[in-house]
Amino acid sequence: MNSASRSFYRAGLLAAFAAAVFTFGCAKKPPAPAPPPPAPAPAPARPTVTLQASPSTINKGDSATLSWNSTDATQLSITPDVGSVTAQGSTKVTPSDSTTYTITATGPGGNASASASVTVAAPPPPQEAPPPDLTKIFLAEVRDAYFDFNKSDIRPDAREALSKTADLLKNYPQIKVTIEGHCDERGSTEYNLALGDRRANATKQYLVSLGISADRITTVSYGKEKPFCMESNEACWQQNRRGHFVKAN
Amino acid sequence: MPYSRKYMRRLFFAAAILLAARSAAAQDRIRIATGLGETKQRVAVADFAPRADSAKSHSALFTQVVRDDLQYSGILEVPSPSFYPTQVTSVPAELKYSVWTDPPTNAHYVAFGNLTETPAEVAIEAWLYDVRTPTTQAVVGKVYRGAPNDGQVRRFAHQFADEIINKLSGGLPSIASTQIVFVRQMGPQWKELWEMDYDGANQRQLTSLKTISLTPRWSPDASRIAFTCFAPINGVVSAQICMYSLDTGKPVSFARFRGTNATPTWSPDGTQIIFSSSMTGAAELYVSDVNGGRPKRLTFSNGGNVSPVWNPKTGQSIAFVSDRGGYPQLYLMNSDGTSTTKLDLPDMGYVIDPAWSPNGQLLAFSWRRPSGNYDIYIMDAGSSQPPVEITRDQGRNERPSWAPDGRHIVFESTRTGTRQIWTMLADGSQPHELTASGHNESPNWSPK
After folding, report:
1. How many other CB atoms sit within 10 Å of the CB of residue A205?
2. Are residues B110 and B221 in the same domain?
3. Is B349:B366 a contact under the CB 8 Å cutoff?
4. How many CB pairs under 8 A join A and B?
5. Residue B26 is assigned to a structural domain of this protein
6. Chain B contacts of A243, Cβ < 8 Å?
7. pLDDT digits (tens, 9 = 90+) for B62-119
8. d(Cα B291, Cα B254) in Å, to the nearest integer?
9. Number of alpha carbons in the 13 Å side-chain half-sphere of residue A69
10. A33 pLDDT band (50/70/90 cuts)?
11. Closest residue in chain B to residue A224, using alpha carbons only
């Protein structure tokens, strides 16, 4: 039993009780020729109404169907958006945000209302482009600086290489680097630590002169302790005399 | 050390003469003899007698180590054991003087003794007698007792040899009980500090930093080793000064600085460290407390200053490597950084690895002349004599370090095809290979 029909039932009981009291009291009055009492007019029934939304959850831009049924109503109206409707029926709605629809039924017996909600799901996040693989880009685009024997001057070929590396660092300002200074095997371990330090610093200074912030660059000298190439010939030694870039983050 | 100073002066005098004589034929090999003008004492070492079969192997070990130590001292000669009399000499009562002094042994002294061994202890009685002047008085008489293992027997043999060398040299410090620290390659880009006896025995790992450790240097009291390390802190890697305690077997803290920090060495009194650092931009030399506190800059040449070594005798002079003239060369300065002078060598080249002799008179170093490989030279820092070449035509020879007797040098050489640790007498004779496999470098001889 819904609330509307329950109150209708109570109203009926009250009417019957009132009628019974009246009849009983009447019996205490001096008898009079009484016309037969008219049958009490039945109270007008209160309206009933139901409302359903299907589906109750939609994606933005999609529609839901509102369906309703009513009894004893003379006027039906759904808010928001829909307005007056017939005693029963259905309509499509396309809310842009989650909305609770309320149908109000009005009849001679009173009012009734019912509600149904349509939830609009949050739109899925837009399909983002996958983040660029910085390590891959770094390895593909970075260029080391190579040096002459016992020297830390930036050679013309190193200038060219470092301008490419500077472009990379400008394009990806989030990248930080460590510059490793390396030497060939011919000098001493001790002296090569100093020489590698100077090569790493010369490489850093050249990048700074090209507009790369010094904050993004750390340096370390490995002297001849981390050779790229293990043979004892000039081609190999040249490989080992370098300022080598390592992505630091 | 009157003996060794006299010896060294003679060595140098002889070298200078030889160099002068050969200057027209510089390709000739330059050789200088050991102990010029000295007659070497001949010390026979009888087979030490095992008192039971269980003592046989330790008797043989003790005998061999004593023979090697005496022979390698460079001041004594050990007659070949194949000439020795066959009868056993295990106690003074058994010593027959004439069988030792006669040809072919021609011994001046005889060392002998015996070993008793139980599962708990080895006991070694050891004597040295002068067999030319019969007397009941032993020159050396010792009893050694300790754990019956090879390491302990070796230590006793070195101690006995030390006694003999000390007595017969008139007080020359003996090196048989000294140690050598060195760098061993453990894997690609992995080098640790190792230590071994002066004869290459008993090699053992000191550090386990799993990075690159370089250039170990003993403190004057031999309780600590300063070295160059790459141990990262907070993910940042750079060359720093590290310190290791032989007493605790653990690292000792040292301040970290910006840039590349390397080649630490000690002041003669052990209270200061001098090292190379690029903390202000270029590699300059700094002196600090032993924990890195109060660093004070000593050089102002815009870089390329490394490998400082403090004169151990005077404490007044520091030799170091600088490329301020273009290529790395040797320089001297006062310990406060003043009065820098370049050590003039006859031709250009690449000069590195300076090492002071214990008496503070001689500098050993490595020199790659324009037409050659690295070789080890010795020169008198206080004179204008040209340096003496003590290795030649045998691979790359670098990083000399003097033994406390001032007569031996440990160095690294590629003469066998791999980089290994060798020792030799300071005239280049008696080369001994101490390590044989892998890659070993940067030896430093303990000061005692």
Report:
1. 14
2. no
3. no
4. 90
5. no
6. none
7. 999 999 999 999 999 999 999 899 889 999 999 999 999 999 999 999 999 999 999 9
8. 5
9. 2
10. low
11. B189
Q: How many CB atoms lie within 10 A of CB A233?
A: 8
**CB contacts, 8 Å: A191 with chain B:** 304, 306-307, 321, 323, 328, 352
- Token look-up 């660059």 returns A217
Residue B275, φ and ψ in degrees, nearest 5: -155, 165
Domains A46-122 and A134-247 belong to one CATH topology: no
| Residue B318 β-bridge partners | B310, B333
Which element (helix H / strand E) includes A179?
strand A177-182
ipTM score assigned to the predicted complex: 0.87
From B415, B382, B380, select the one nearest B397 (Cα to Cα). Answer: B415
Please answer yes or no on whether A221 and B260 come within 8 Å at the CB atom.
Answer: yes
What is the distance between the alpha carbons of residues B109 and A219, in angstroms, rounded to a whole number? 62
Contact B273, B288 (CB under 8 A): yes
Tokens coding A161: 């290489």
Q: Do A190 and B366 touch (CB under 8 A)?
A: no
Instruction: Please give the structure tokens belonging to residue A46.
Output: 């209160």
For residue B282, the one-letter residue type is A
Q: Are residues B146 and B213 in the same domain?
A: no
Residues B272 and B328 in one domain: yes
Nearest CA in chain B to A230: B188
Q: In what order do the strands lie in the sheet with B408-413?
A: B397-402, B408-413, B420-425, B432-433
Which residue of B lies nearest to A151 if distances are taken between CA atoms? B326
Both tokens of residue B244? 């290791």
Query: In this predicted model, what pLDDT tens digit does every residue of A96-116 receive, in sequence order?
Result: 888 898 988 888 888 888 888
Q: Which two tokens stand for residue A37?
A: 């009492």
The chain-wide mean pLDDT, for chain B, equals 90
Within a domain: B49: yes
Is B422:B432 a contact under the CB 8 Å cutoff? yes
Nearest to B260 among A150, A189, A193 (CB): A193
The alpha carbon of residue B246 is apart from the nearest alpha carbon of chain A, in Å, by: 24
- Three-state DSSP at A50 gives strand
Are B263 and A190 in contact (CB < 8 Å)?
Answer: yes
Shortest Cα distance, chain A CAs vs residue B15, angstroms: 27
Q: How confident is the model at residue B335 (pLDDT cuts 50, 70, 90)?
A: very high
Query: Is the N-terminal amide bond of B431 cis, ω within 30° of 0?
Result: no
Handedness of CA B246, B252, B254, B259 (dihedral sign): positive
- Closest CA of chain A from B365, distance in Å: 12
What range does the domain containing B85 cover?
Answer: 39-168
Query: Is residue B16 assigned to a domain?
Result: no
- CATH T-level fold of A46-122: Immunoglobulin-like (2.60.40)
Number of domains making up chain B? 2
Q: Mutation test of the interface with chain A: which of B190, B306, B373, choosing the one with the most A Cβ atoms within 10 A?
A: B306
Structure tokens at B8: 């060294």
User: What architecture does CATH give domain A134-247?
Assistant: 2-Layer Sandwich (3.30)
Mind telling me how many Å the CA of A143 is from chain B's nearest CA?
Answer: 22
Question: For chain A, which residues make up each domain, given as ranges?
Answer: 1-43, 46-122, 134-247
Same domain, B436 and B357: yes
Question: From the list A178, A188, A221, which residue is nearest B239 (CB)?
Answer: A221
Chain B interface residues facing chain A, Cβ-Cβ under 8 Å? 189, 191, 212, 214-215, 228, 230, 236-239, 259-260, 262-263, 276, 278, 281-283, 303-307, 321, 323, 327-328, 350, 352-353, 366, 368, 398-399, 441-442
